[in-house]
Write a structure and sequence with these properties.
345 residues, 2 domains, Rossmann fold, alpha/beta, 5-stranded parallel β-sheet, homodimer, 15 helices
């Protein structure tokens, strides 16, 4: 099974995780609540680190709790064990084999802090290191570039946020239609292919997202690097204005996420300015007509709660990266130089 | 006074902060210790966010305490106030005028958490929002690109880490010679100019650092974006191997930091592999002969404690960015599109 098939498998993967994984995620949440956690620390690398960024915003917003992304090298290189205190520590890794992520979780468990593994490999070292494991059950991911395990990681985090946070009847009701929203996002493939074909010769890009969609910007940029060999630099739209704005010139490619939600008006204003003042080449993923009208549009389905949208909005981004690789004559099923499992310390 | 003069002013700025600022930093530290803090949250943007990354590693390593980088948009856009509990909250901003950084500090203070401003503007909104202010006293920074305020921010954080952490006689003794180590780093300017002249035509770059030097990699990449309009993507050497490795091809420019310390052997091994297997074009800043021999070298002074080296190692990086701008016919004193103070929400 190739990358495109794994991208297309995402509605089924997410539906299965919601149907079969929810009970165990709720049990994990109940254990955390019983332990009286007041902060969350997350350790992850690569694509999973973008799931960690999503967790930082979603758990931060819904639990009103500081969420820290761990610096694993403190443990593995400097030999320091942070005192985790009343923190829960979550390790995210599809393979469960990153020694640095395992080391952070193992250190936390030795200290008696509650530890959770989110992984597609429930027999992995990460799963063995943690008190509890959330099994993504996404099936084997054969392509080197992670796609379905990323959306599964986000879904697991969203279910954890729902279980730990306040009641949210709207999100609950929406969950049943999340797989069909992902399926609707897959239908932008012709637009993604056209957008890619028109940009086969680009030499670099900026990817902009904000709030919940900052994780999507990071993951989109990584897919462009892995699959397209394109230097793509992701920015929160706020940080972007502190300096990197200097990069822009007419025709410079900017890929942006601007779905409905609190950051949307600011995004539309900024993107309008980038277009008018700097004549950049804009590709915009949004469910809003005003945002889509600013450049080449990737229409996202409407009615998705903003904090669940990253599970949907990454799909057109994956498709753009896939087709941009093909438009450049690169085989997206075998990115050069990298392996599926990366064992960094 | 122009950018080059401000770069050259850094030994004096750091010497002044150590001489005049230390007492007040020790008072701030004593207050934090009296309050019984067990976690630190940092809010910052742009260059100051790289000082925050430095703080994450240095305070994390020396205090063995989780250090979280805040997501300010949770407060400003989503209206969520994290429960800061027993966290101290530090806002870093040279101008003290970033509304989003001010908002995080103000929220923490309302909750009764100890709050600290690190700023070059002791009358700014950020200073007024915090319980205590560490004044960088770096003098007015006229160039749009921050240089001397960045090294002053790192110095303030290092002094705070010394005051809060365990005794460190070696670091104490070294402090008196830190300004002369920065002065020694300024002497690589001819090499930096030569390195820049040889790379005037490059179209993008990767910047690699690890551990304490990850902050330097981030700041080096930002200077290349601001001053040189070069798409430069910073990576921790661990994350780099999870995907972005696919970017590499013969001649691809890689700027790397590899000074002595726990990550150094791994850095030298990785850089050697990048050179042998991928024939990248390497520029290496290090105090180690084996690292310098891997590419065009920027020699860092020896004898600098690894956790203080980022205050020194950024200097050759600034000089490379300055001279690369000039080699490309860009005026480094007035980067396009950006202003000195950026008021993002």
């Amino acid at each position: 099974m190739g990358l495109r098939e794994e991208i297309r498998e995402q509605p089924a993967v997410v539906a299965r995780l919601i149907a079969d994984g929810r009970d165990s995620i709720e049990r994990v949440a109940a254990t955390l609540q019983a332990r009286g956690v007041d902060e969350i620390v997350i350790a992850a690398r690569g694509t999973s680190d973008h799931a960690a960024v999503y967790a930082q915003y979603v758990l931060g917003a819904r639990l009103a709790m500081p969420v820290a992304l761990a610096a694993p090298s403190l443990v593995t290189l400097y030999g320091v064990e942070p005192k985790f205190g009343r923190s829960a520590v979550v390790g995210i890794s599809q393979s469960g084999e990153s020694p640095d992520v395992v080391a952070v979780v193992a250190a936390a468990r030795r200290q008696g802090a509650p530890t959770i593994a989110i992984t597609n490999s429930p027999d992995s070292p990460l799963a063995r290191a943690a008190d509890a494991t959330i099994d993504l059950a996404a099936g084997e991911e054969r392509a080197v570039a992670a796609t379905k395990t990323y959306t599964a990681e986000l879904t697991a985090i969203a279910l954890l946020a729902l279980a730990l946070g306040p009641q949210d009847a709207g999100a609950e009701a929406f969950l049943a239609t999340l797989p069909s929203a992902i399926a609707a996002a897959l239908e932008v493939e012709p637009a993604a292919e056209r957008i890619a074909a028109a940009r086969a010769g680009i030499g670099g890009a900026i990817v902009l997202g904000r709030g919940f969609e900052y994780a999507t910007a990071r993951e989109w940029a990584l897919k462009l690097k892995e699959l397209v060999r394109l230097l793509a630099d992701p920015y929160s739209s706020a940080d972007f204005q502190h300096g990197p704005l200097a990069l822009l010139e007419p025709g410079f490619p900017v890929f942006a996420l601007a779905p409905s939600g609190p950051p949307a008006d600011g995004q539309v204003e900024l993107l309008g300015r980038l277009r008018t003042d700097f004549q950049v080449d804009l590709v915009v993923a949004s469910d809003r007509d005003d945002a889509l009208a600013l450049g080449d549009g990737l229409r996202l389905p409407s009615g998705v709660p903003d904090w669940l949208m990253p599970i949907v909005s990454i799909v057109p981004a994956q498709l753009v990266a896939y087709h941009l690789a093909r438009a450049r004559g690169i085989d997206p099923d075998s990115p050069r130089h990298i392996r599926k499992v990366t064992r960094t310390r």
